[in-house]
Amino acid sequence: MPATSKKTKPQSPRKKSTEALQKDHCDVRVISLALQGGGAHGAFTWGVLDQLLMDERLRIEAVTATSAGAMNAAMMAYGLATGGRDEARKLLRIFWRRVSQASSMSMLQATPFEKMMGARSLDYSPSFMAMDMMTRFFSPYQLNWFDVNPLRNIVAEMVDFDYLAKHNPIKLFVNATQVKTGKVKVFGPEALTLDMVMASACLPFLFKAVEVDGEPYWDGGYSGNPAIFPLFYHCQSSDVVLVQINPMVREMVPTKAPEIIDRINEISFNSNLMSEMRAIDFVSRLIHSGHLDAKSYKPMLVHMIEAPAVLGEYDYSTKLNADWDFLVHLHDAGVQAATEWVDANFDKLGVESSAPIRETFLL
Question: Do 276 and 230 meet the contact criterion of CB atoms below 8 Å apart?
Answer without folding.
Answer: no
